[in-house]
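Task: encode each sequence below as structure tokens.

Item 1
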Amino acid sequence: MGDVLAGIHATWEFDTDSVLIRFERGIRTPKLLQSLRERRIPHAAMSSVTLTPGKRDTVVLRVVPRPGADPLLEAAAGQLKEGCDPYRLVLPAERELLAEYYADELRSCLGPASDEPADRFMVAAPEAPMQFKAYDGRAAFDGERVSFRWFWTGASSAKWKAGDQTYRVSELAGIEWRSPEALDGHLRLVPRAAVPADHRTGGSLGDLHGPDTTGSPAASTTVNGVPAAVSRVAADQDPAAVVFGLGYGPVHESLPFAAAVLESVRRTQSAPAVPAPVLVNAGRRDPADIAERIHHLGELHQAGLVTDDEYSAKKAQLLAEL
């Protein structure tokens, strides 16, 4: 088609085999869309096209991706607010006829498999490296490894005892992103070793976990109709998870992060499973950081949260990093 359709917060460019969606950078544009900058969705990744009335004399042109086509939507698992949907184009009501024309043009481009789930990601994931600050630690992803470094002011004693964590993508079976706008917001990784072989689909963690002792909505999820038998602990006690909170792990930082990890997991899901997680202790550390950690460890010991043996072993481990 080669045309351009400008709307509120975004502009759609129609190519012969895809639609390039560019997001505006402005104070009214949702931060998630600004951070994404653009999304290119191939016609083959589209499931349907809708045109509906919007708010305040507007119409909304929307492309509905096929399930499994976009790692961002897979990671979001239906938790995105309407205004953050990257596939909505809001137009003034007087442009409804023009919007209807493009909706019909896009519908004519839908492929024969448009009503079927995609067998691979067809929309590019956000690019690594990236990082964000959670309440209890800093999460980083370099394209091959996900690392969690705990904050002494926020991390639980269980995470301090486990130490900073690093996971190779090849060691992971999936991820779970729980929106920071929810009460139990977090990002959790699932090591392959924790998931039965029959359930390693490479999808989001919400597709992989079984009964959840935290009472979250994911408690009854299944894999291909079969309940997944993977137990979980609360995110604040799980060294494979970081916890969000007010001002921590915002959607525009943590969701693209989750999508990038998920895309890498899917790409490497056929790789042989290896033991995980790996404790990060390699290399020399800042002496001030080590001293701070030993001080916090001492507080845990005095409070009775760490045994004498655990205290001695962990202290020796920290001193060895100097």
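Item 2
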Amino acid sequence: MSQSLSLPEDGASTVIATVTATVAPHADPLSALAQWLLSHRKVLVLTGAGISTASGIPDYRDDAGVRRGRLPIQGSEFRQSEAARKRYWARSMLGWPRLAQALPNAAHQALAQLQAAGHLGAILTQNVDGLHQQAGSRDVLELHGSIHAVRCLACGTPYGRAEIQAQLERSNPAFAQLQAEVLPDGDAQLEPDADAAFHVPACTACGGMLQPDVVFFGDGVPATRSAQAEALTGDCDAMLVVGSSLMVLSGFRFARMAAAAGKPVAAINRGRTRADELLAFKLQEDAESVLPRLAARLLSQPPS
């Protein structure tokens, strides 16, 4: 049996938490979450776009889990269509610099502190922004890759995204002056057909097709990485979801796997999640509000 609790008025928003019967009935949700973490030794953290919005990186979905805006370019479309590659790289040229300048926010920093103190285990992230590593977190598995890396599909040569940005700006000087609305994951809004004359980057080693080292929509997570994520899920004794609606199966399946194995899953997420019925505990609030307060409570206590 579960019950609903309201967070004391030390935050800006109303928060409801669903807590299993093992949590003290009169505890406030923040204390209950702290108690929950202390009662598990190997908590796997699964993060999504909601943890990075306070760093200025837009997310994909609203609080109801509904996708905003147009559908992204599919992986097969990128690889098969020159027009799609022009569209992707033109938008990326304008959107990536903002993402590259983003800094970890208080939520990233709090997770790194909690991990360093032994209260959290590895981090499995759906994000491609690299902000967990910037904040000092270790044992981070980037489920969908990194937007800061590029590879040649022909010869496998790796590139830093900054190197490709320089190539894009040299080949497309007129685009460097454009202003565009920033979209999730280094994308940007461009008018239709604005990219018709855009020059896409090519591998300097073999002339082959370059692709950002991320999992495009419609593509699957690489088998080796998927196996690593499955191993982390199998090895944990609880899972904490932060800033993810889990609407994408590549993330949801790990929460489902943990719950099916009898491991409790908790979530800090402003809106609904696909796993709401599986959750033992949920705080509906922004991660950058909850996690620093959680860290302040726990850092003075040794892990259980």
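Check on item 2: The first strand starts at residue 3 and ends at 6. The chain is about 35% helix and 15% strand.
End of task.
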